[in-house]
Amino acid sequence: MNTSALIAWYERQARDLPWRRDGVTAWQILMSEIMLQQTPVVRVAPIWEQWVDRWPVPSLMAASSQGEVLRAWGKLGYPRRALRLHECARVLAAEHGDAVPADVDVLLGLPGIGAYTARAVACFAYGQRVPVVDTNVRRVVARAVHGAAEPGNPSTTRDLADVDALLPRTRARAAVFSAALMELGATVCTARNADCDRCPLTDCAWVDAGRPAHTGPPRKVQKFAGTDRQVRGLLLGVLRESHAPVERARLDQVWHSDPTQRDRALGSLLVDGLVEQTEDGLFALAGEGDTER
């Protein structure tokens, strides 16, 4: 892979994303990485900027309640990420001097931080030479290196080795290359459309092979309408809009078509710790059930 061409392209064409600007801290990059998981940039950017203003350091988030963080999360989806980030903020404030560690292994020990996030923070916040692999990167590598239209099943060992072999030797170029590889998959070599005319890579095994079609099972498209995820979101919406615990009847109003599904969704929110029930049977966001505080 022509790393110089890809880096040069990135330096000309990279999107002006707020978490890429000068002065952004490792904590703020960590927040962006958590938010961006399974959520488009256009939805994340305005929420992230609000969070940076409100919680510029972990200790400020740690001092807020779980409910406040969930309320600020809004409709980003997968709200358990917000709870894990709040838990992570508490650990950073209490055990790491209100700073995000630079070491991948230490990052992996923090609540809610997985293999991708730990390496992304080490790379994008601290400029370390570590492979960073997300869905977009896996797709570019599958096409450019392996000549396949789509990547196979994820394999942490194989995927990290693939990207590590492509990284430039110097730290500074490796960090830029990682961002460029990800940007290419997000904007040019996408799942729906490989825009090869715009691609800066001059050596692509997939193109050289005549762009063979994907022969495996079709990609699963996740639906949202009518799912438990939708019902959970509606229930959380009621609680986000209220600053006091609400009666069950308020929650029942959001989903009449299938009471069993509604009960199941509410039960899962309680199990996940996103919602809590008071002693008198009311419901509130996590951390907001105690009205006497």
From TrEMBL:
Q: Which Gene3D superfamilies match?
A: Helix-hairpin-Helix base-excision DNA repair enzymes (C-terminal) (1.10.1670.10), Hypothetical protein, domain 2 (1.10.340.30)
Sorted keywords for this record are:
DNA damage, DNA repair, Glycosidase, Hydrolase, Iron, Iron-sulfur, Metal-binding
Positions of the HhH-GPD domain = 35-187
Entries under InterPro entries matching the protein? DNA_glycosylase (IPR011257), HhH-GPD_domain (IPR003265), HhH_base_excis_C (IPR023170), HhH_motif (IPR000445), MIG/MutY (IPR044298)
UniProt EC number: 3.2.2.31
The first-level EC class reads hydrolase
Which transformation does this protein catalyse, written as a reaction?
Answer: Hydrolyzes free adenine bases from 7,8-dihydro-8-oxoguanine:adenine mismatched double-stranded DNA, leaving an apurinic site
Co-factor(s): [4Fe-4S] cluster
Q: Which family does it belong to?
A: Belongs to the Nth/MutY family.
Its protein name is: Adenine DNA glycosylase
The record lists the organism as Rhodococcus daqingensis
